[in-house]
Known about the structure:
It is a single chain. The chain has 493 residues and is an alpha+beta fold. It folds into three domains: 14-277 and 350-418, no CATH class; 284-334, no CATH class; 423-490, CATH 2.40.50.140. It is built from 13 helices and 17 strands. It has helices spanning 14-24, 33-40, 101-109, 125-131, 173-181, 188-191, 194-217, 246-268, 284-293, 304-317, 322-333, 368-382, 390-422, and strands at 51-52, 58-62, 71-77, 83-90, 113-114, 119-120, 139-149, 155-172, 225-232, 235-243, 273-277, 337-341, 430-439, 442-447, 452-458, 468-477, 482-490. Strands 1, 2, 3, 4, 7 and 8 form a six-stranded mixed β-sheet that branches. Helix 2 (33-40) crosses helix 3 (101-109), helix 7 packs across helix 8 (246-268) and helix 9 (284-293) packs antiparallel against helix 11 (322-333). The longest helix has 33 residues, at 390-422. It is globular. The model is unreliable at 1-8 (pLDDT under 50).
Amino acid sequence: MRAVNSDEPMPYDLNAAALQTVTENGFHPQFPPEAEAELAALVPVSTPGALDQRDLLWSSIDNDTSRDLDQIEVAEQLSDGRIRILIGIADVDAYVRKGLALDSHAQAETTTVYAQVRTFPMLPEQLSTGLTSFLENQDRAAIVVEYVVGTDGGVTDARSYSANVRNKAQLTYNGVGPWLDGTAAAPPKVAASPALQAQLKLQNTAAQRLLEARHRMGALSFERTETSAVIENGQVTGLVAAKKNSAGMLIENFMVAANEAMARTFVEKKVSSIRRVVSQPARWDRIVELAKRVGGALPAQPDVKALNEFLLKRRQDDPDHYADLSLSVIKLLGPGEYKMQRPGDDDGGHFSLAAHDYTHSTAPNRRFADLLSQRILKAMCAGASAPYTDDELNTIAVHCTEREDAARKVERTMQKRIAAVAMSGKVGQTFLAMATGVSAKGTFVRVIDPPMEGRLMQGTDGVDVGDKLEVRLTRTDPARGFIDFARVRALPH
């Protein structure tokens, strides 16, 4: 039992810090009583008149602990070599009715916030991990986005409709990915079903075609390292980095194609919508300079195809340092934003995906923009009037962007706090790092191993994004989310 006057510091309460951080950034984790009352009255639904696709071999692939399953997938081999892909998206609108309390709360929050030690859902978990989630062997209402992938990776014959579906296999990236990559045996559910094995391999073939086609169009090839906390007995003991495998890339490519198909549908039907836009990078000159350092050459004006060709070559020539280069380019490209688009408008598209038409539509449990896209689609298919005016769409788009920026701030702050807790015993040690941000707010670096970010407090002169350094950890302050470094020396590029 701890003595009252003990000088031993109390463990930093990351759960309480997460709640404080989301609140300080304008989120409201508690659902209002009116929303709770609506939730209590909800019952499982199926969509009258919808297609019955419960007999198809649907499966989901997500993180090990995820229960908010927004999507399921199934593929069909066509006789001419093409592959039909069906993406089932949770019909959240069937439960969250426009203008009522649950909807008003979701529109105010706009996004689920992931703080690693705690998740703050946009919608109550009874919905996002229950009634609307594609849990295994449960009948669910869905919006299906269907498209055909050609042998060249081109996407045709896109259409969307309502269906009743059933997830036959709830799978994980860590289980399916190594099997698809040929580095591990099939997970038990896959090993027990030859039909599921064939289905996943067909999906992977389609995903590879989509990826190759995206690369030909100039979509950027990044290698992003996701960092998560190691938690033992409720305490953070370290940090680990996980890279995407074939299962993660499969889902990513399917969702990108589904979002493009949805956006093109809105264009073809001449309806207003919200787009996901990544503008041309403001700091293209710095990207050009980074390329020149490693023997590459990029044009003076932003060119996504040229940038992707450079990135692909660097990944082949120097795979050990490709993740560092990817991170620098990601930082310099800047974040995306939501924009309202009227019929005939040109929003400039999604620079890093090389996509002229792109929206968010595949995660309606977690993003309000996706729920909104679902409502626009359903009204369009029913021949009903648009659920939102252009002015409403514009206001929502601006708010979604602002809330997404706030969510990223929460996630960055908590990542720093988690890292500060994990690294509190390593003050004085030196690490290899790369500069990831230089602004009036300071100079920031990312340590490669263990993966963490902090501020360079000493030796900042002449440092810019992409520079490699040896740094010494000088201080950690979990309460303020501070991890401070001093430059020991610059390293060759």
